[in-house]
């Protein structure tokens, strides 16, 4: 971290010496260990070490970018030279420039995200083998394995700009995953489970990962068709967060100033049920996306994104904010931790309350158009009758329009999937078109 900070200061000095009116630099140093095993044998062991330096300079309203992976003085000087040369040939843009100086973060705290794991290759292999063995032994119908993986990594980054701001961050990430295959011939089904956390102490055990992967895989055997129609659709937590993702894409500054969003000019309007709220919490201890500042050094704060169903604000960095005549929301680089309000308990309760409909546990394809709001994605999961899971289903398509889907949300569960920075439980949409058997 000290080396990156010193290099960042040198880049800013070099930019100023070449006449840049403003400059910024982002540096990162990432390291990781990844192993993959399959059917009791080691397939890959990989150590990674990645470093990056991204330099941006401004000559008035002209902007230039250049990057390198080398921290040697000669490489830094050449990178700054290239950025300056590019800036001199670009057209001026009145929205270019650093974020406003008075928005820079001053309280540069850490949020308990640094938990290095002294795990060597042998230890990582042992964890993956244990998870796979537990999964294969859990049920005789498990016929094959797609493999198990262990990963541990850490990252250090520094952002600095010519306002005098320099912020350093560090974080770790660890995971263990397993994918299994059940059945034989045309009746084979695949599913998986994984655990992920900032601290290895928060990971699920290999035995639990194996058991969950096996239970999910076996439950998918012998799917049956259903008739095409309009039904309630219940998204499991890990699928429900994709709905929030579509919302985030539609309210991002880039989509809005390009006028390529179905939520254009919707700030201050109700887009979700009146009990539905989303709060951004950048300062959660051990939060997956906690940070004191965004990618431009702007201080982050707790704030509502949706309150009582009303879209309170957009997601803006300084450039998109200027294009829209607004102010940065501290979201350069994306959102931080999100918490979605719940009005129900868990998935089991929501299945009972749904009566008859579709429980979605897997989504396929990219069929969500944030320009028009059209939504159509491949899906699989379980058919629910009388408040109970009746049988698995696959090769379905669920469709609708995102504005209507958002308004039709009837319940959000408290069964939050903690493996994501989007904290949301199961989501019940009152009615969607489900294309199955003709």
Automatic annotation (TrEMBL):
GO MF terms held by the record: metallopeptidase activity
InterPro entries registered for this protein in UniProt:
Metalloprtase-TldD/E_C, Metalloprtase-TldD/E_cen_dom, Metalloprtase-TldD/E_N, PmbA, TldD/PmbA_N, TldD/PmbA_sf
In this chain the Metalloprotease TldD/E N-terminal domain maps to 23-87
SUPFAM superfamilies xref list: Putative modulator of DNA gyrase, PmbA/TldD
Q: Name one GO biological process term.
A: proteolysis
Q: Where is the Metalloprotease TldD/E C-terminal domain?
A: 228-436
* The Metalloprotease TldD/E central domain, residue ranges: 115-221
A Gene Ontology cellular component where this protein is annotated is: cytosol
The cross-references to NCBIfam families, in alphabetical order and at most eight, read: PRK11040.1 (NF008268)
Which family does the UniProt entry place this protein in? Belongs to the peptidase U62 family.
Q: What is the protein's given name?
A: Peptidase C69
The scientific name of the source species is Arenimonas malthae CC-JY-1
